[in-house]
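stuck on this one:
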Amino acid sequence: MITGLRGGPLISVTRITELAHFMAGLMITEGVLTVDATAGNGYDTVFLAEKVGPEGHVYSFDVQQEAIDYTYKRLKQENLEKRVTLLRKNHEYLQQYVPDRVAVIMYNLGYLPGGDRHITTKYDTTIKSIKQALGLLIPGGIISIVLYPGHREGAEEKEKIIPFCRQLDSSHYEILNSRLLNRDQNPPELIIIQKKSKMTAGF
């Protein structure tokens, strides 16, 4: 557990999605644009919508109507729906729908929890999307990618995405890979890619 300045609990390092939120939150100020590349059940979209404030905006993608409906319901409950554009599109089309540079792009790969496990992200379209995401980032901005190698497609994504990230130019990007080393059965992993700038050279 990482604790706050007063000793209270802040995040659990064993919850990869929580760690992704923590890292993304460091880069978000009110008024910026952000992207949830995999809306799923809407948790990342709601997190981003809260962080960007009333002057910011979130573009949230998913191929499943069920995921779009879940996400809209959560946004509506929090009175955040006006801060988000929901797109029933594959994240490989980021550049077609995101009109400007963004501070944070979040990926939570795999299948929709509670949904059809045969509908899952694929490494080829995910890498195509990440390439576009790199071009959309502002200097200092980050991409967070949560990997789930515990199922076949997730393991394949990890096998392809980590080498792709490793070959990115180190003069332009800093890359962090967080893993739970003492967990069995292929636990989730987090990749953080940060675009370098004169003011921000990495975490």
The beta strands are 2-3, 9-11, 33-36, 57-61, 84-87, 102-108, 137-147, 173-179, 189-195.
